[in-house]
Amino acid sequence: MVRTDLQGKTLICLLAVLCASGSAEADFLSPRQARRSPRGRIACLPSPTMGTRYMDWDDLGRHSYGFTLWEGNGIVYTCRGGHVDVTHLRKVADWTAYLAYHVRETMLKNETRMSYKMWEPSRYHVEIDYPPGWEYLPPESRNAIAREAAIDLATYLAYTASVWHEILTWHGFKGAGIYPEYHSAFSWEDNYSNAMGSYIAALALRDRQREYEEAMTLYLDQKIRSLGGRSRQVARQAGEAVRGLWFTGGFVIVTMVKRHLDIGFDTGSIEPWLVPGMADCSDEAPWLCPVPNLNALDKHGLRVKVEIEPKEWEKGAILRKAYPDPETRHDRIDPTQHIAVIIEGIRAEMIERYGPTADAYEAPDLALRTRALATSADPAASAIGPDDDTAGEGTESAYGR
User: Fold this and answer.
1) How far apart are alpha carbons 110 and 135 in whole angstroms?
2) Per residue, what are the HEC states of 272-288?
3) Rounded to two decimals, what is the model's pTM?
4) What is the mean pLDDT of residues 262-274?
């Protein structure tokens, strides 16, 4: 739909021409890449359990939208960001790039609706209300606005989908169709890593000098460096230090007794859970990762409505949280209205299962941390080798996590 207003037509034309003049178009995905949705990547838990892959911060490899043997994936520990799941980050980044390409194509065709699926059976519906005078813009001006708006909208869509995935897994969704992923829902690095993926993807898509994959490699390396990335040994030590506090269990079976429910929609950012005293980390303030929202589209004069239509077996329990009154219940979720309500329902269930501090950050005490460091330093006591990629209870599917 297009809002009509003569004064608005003139104003937006002038502004758009100014924005477009003298600027080169940033590279998105190529048409060939964008024909396929992002590939799956096998993620893992941050706890030192079977299937976990800890990484050195300076061994991330080259980012690739397609299959490659040169891309590093796993868990990195950073002084200012805590554990970062690089696999999650890359997946959300690639979905941001994919959606940015298709949102831009939708806008350049003046279409008002688009619909798509992502990791799960759920279907996403997007409705775009264009600003006055949109249809009168010259192609180069419309393309400049569409490019920027597509990045802003895609970051929101990709990150929101990652939150939706955590909601589904909390309710027992089986991504690989074999076992529920409930044990990993909202683990302490999830939302932070996902938000970082959309944040870095936006930087890469706005890079006017580099193609997407090259830019992602550069900005990911820069961000992990700026956060104080550490070795895989430190990442493992940090995971061991929170055993019994953030998670319980041994090598095979693990239970997340702490869940990080901060999704950042209310504050605009997510604060990471840090493990104090790791390696030579100073007491620098944590980096608050920005969280995208639809307000970013205001500067483009766009109004966008997003809805999620659940298709999974778990949809009943989720819709009951979103619509407590059966008389008003619908079959779609509006993220701006319902996700906060759903999260509060999950919080209540979490506290009932794991206790009153299940959603609260608690730093491990010095004695526990010292014991963890001693255990990690003893090769005989370490159950996980630095390159152990074995899949098991603590492993995620390529479809999930």
Assistant:
1) 8
2) CCCCCCCCCCCCCCCCC
3) 0.87
4) 97
